[in-house]
Amino acid sequence: MKLPECLVVDSPAQRRALEHPLRHRLLRALPVEGATISQLSRLAKTNKGNVSHHLRVLLDAGLVQQGPTRTVRGGTEQYFLPVARRLEFTPGDDGAATRAMLATMAEEIPHDNNHLLNSRRVRLTHEQAEHLAAYLDQLVDELPEAPPGAPDYAVLVGVYRRD
């Protein structure tokens, strides 16, 4: 299934939905081919009740979609699918969704002793910052996808103003 490249997070419902770190964990754990509540429970290392509740919030906000169902042991399992490969956060909220996303990533990073993390302060004009952000985004977008079985890496692309 070919996913749209980007979903711009710009509605109040989407921003509220992304204010919880577990919802970011679920989005980051959700494979392109989708997953059931049971599968996401294992991937996100939390119980099915938590997954069910937070998936409903993401579904209502349009951040995940329902996929196919399958019958197992007399019951029906619902698959949930991502709606886009990446989320783009627009300015204008108080930063709660961004803080939740960064908290989720901060939990992942210590598990990789070989992470490639770089933080740098650079003095730029507004136009230079916009150009840099667009360039970095394009660089990541143009990377060819590795074959199945290759390790998953997360990439955080951001340029922000320090006040």
Task: Write up what this structure looks like.
- This protein has 163 residues and is α+β, with helices and mostly antiparallel strands.
- The protein has a single domain, classed as Arc Repressor Mutant, subunit A (Orthogonal Bundle), CATH 1.10.10.
- Helix content is 40%, strand content 15%.
- The chain has helices spanning 12-17, 21-29, 37-44, 48-60, 96-108, 126-141; strands at residues 6-9, 64-72, 75-82, 86-89.
- It has a two-stranded parallel sheet with strand order 1-4. A two-stranded antiparallel ribbon has the order 2-3.
- The longest helix has 16 residues, at 126-141.
- The model has no long low-confidence stretch (mean pLDDT 87).
Q: Widest sheet: strand order?
A: 1-4
Residue windows where pLDDT falls under 50 for at least 5 positions: none
Write the CATH homologous superfamily: Winged helix-like DNA-binding domain superfamily/Winged helix DNA-binding domain
Largest sheet geometry: 2 strands, parallel
Specify Rg, calculated over alpha carbons: 17 Å
Structural class: alpha+beta
Instruction: Identify the CATH architecture.
Output: Orthogonal Bundle
Helix content: 25-40%
Total of DSSP H or I helical runs spanning 4+ residues: 6
Distance between the termini: 42 Å
- Number of separate strands: 4
Level-1 CATH class name: Mainly Alpha
Based on the model shown, name its key terms.
alpha+beta; two-stranded parallel ribbon; 4 strands; 163 residues
